[in-house]
Known about the structure:
The protein is of the alpha+beta class and 180 residues long. The protein is 27% helix and 31% strand. The strands form 2 sheets. Strands 1, 2, 3, 4, 5 and 8 form a 6-stranded antiparallel beta sheet that branches. A two-stranded antiparallel ribbon has the order 6-7. Helix 2 runs antiparallel to helix 4. It is globular. The relative contact order is 0.23.
Amino acid sequence: MLYLFGFERIGVAVSDIYFVDPNPIGGQEGAERGVRLELRRLEPGELKGSIYSARPITVDRPLWRVDLLESVTGTPGSFDRTHHHPALRGWEPGKRVFDEQLSAEPLKWLAERLADLEGVLDEAGLGRDEISPADVAALRERAPEIVDTVSRLLDGVRSGALATPPGDAPGSSSVRASWL
């Protein structure tokens, strides 16, 4: 499942994810599942036909990532693998950053970060020219709706309807099933 909230220059992409890291850090072995949220650049394309034609939209490079993950074998609701990537290098995330508040109250933490887009960019080492004032205002206004979407996806993960392994996953050392 993929949700995309688009603003002027940025978008927020949210998806369920099932993941097995082929090179896990100590204590992070085994399958993980949950919800991934990425702040992404959006690029509008040129019209391909008349003024009535559909406009191409590119969901481009990630600026920030949050992974609300749990180990598949762990206790549901533990958020034992929950982390964020405050900075990305191109398309690659930096190391996982674990935050006690993020794991303790993930939806509250997420709402606070979405309401502080400038702070997120500062932490990521990105210039504020990546966004517009309209992006800041729109994301702050829509943060509750985005957090609600994340909450519903987490419910789907816990019910077993989302973030399931692909059919060829058993025995595989590296698996990823997700839009993001």
